[in-house]
């Protein structure tokens, strides 16, 4: 079984090109101004245009977005999907309103946090942010990967939170994830992607 990989928080051509060359399936762009990985629509648009036709799909991350914020980005950036940090109801409404695939990010600390139903295209299962965190994702924080054992996921899902080249295989083994998402674990500093770590992560996720 090939594990699919998303490299999140892309901000420059070097990170983008490394994700493409390594064989990532998705790249993520963070449209959240309080993130060290934040990109504006004019910054993201040329990066997305640079993606090869058969390369990774482009996902835009939004935190409790207004419709206007989403519209502004979609008018400029050719995104293939949205990753939404908000309620399940709001994420489902965004999916209907904008007609694009939507993944809902769900913060997990205990088994009861795992969604049992949803009206979105996919779920990003990541660690619940610590109290007082500046942002709801991208915190380099793991959770107990065995919590997903026996979970009847209501949609395709990917595992995120604190993954790095050195722990991704174990995370896949324990969680049963078929897709993984990484940001901090392929950086040399917050917001600075390392092409070498991106290659290392994708190889490790693929079991190579
Ligand atoms: O990366 C951010 O700064 C960020 C800000 C606001 C919402 C989400 C954000 N990132 C999400 C991700 O990069 C991933 O989906 C995931 O949380 C993995 O992050 P990491 O633990 O850093 O690998």
TrEMBL record:
HAMAP family: PRAI (MF_00135). It catalyses: N-(5-phospho-beta-D-ribosyl)anthranilate = 1-(2-carboxyphenylamino)-1-deoxy-D-ribulose 5-phosphate. It is an enzyme of class 5 (isomerase). This is N-(5'-phosphoribosyl)anthranilate isomerase. Pathway: Amino-acid biosynthesis; L-tryptophan biosynthesis; L-tryptophan from chorismate: step 3/5. Residues 5-203 form the N-(5'phosphoribosyl) anthranilate isomerase (PRAI) domain. The gene is trpF. Belongs to the TrpF family. The keyword Amino-acid biosynthesis applies. It comes from Komagataeibacter nataicola. Its EC number is 5.3.1.24. GO terms for biological process: L-tryptophan biosynthetic process. GO terms for molecular function: phosphoribosylanthranilate isomerase activity. Keywords: Amino-acid biosynthesis, Aromatic amino acid biosynthesis, Isomerase, Tryptophan biosynthesis. Transmembrane segments: none annotated. InterPro entries: Aldolase_TIM, PRAI_dom, RibuloseP-bd_barrel, TrpF_fam. Gene3D superfamilies: Aldolase class I.
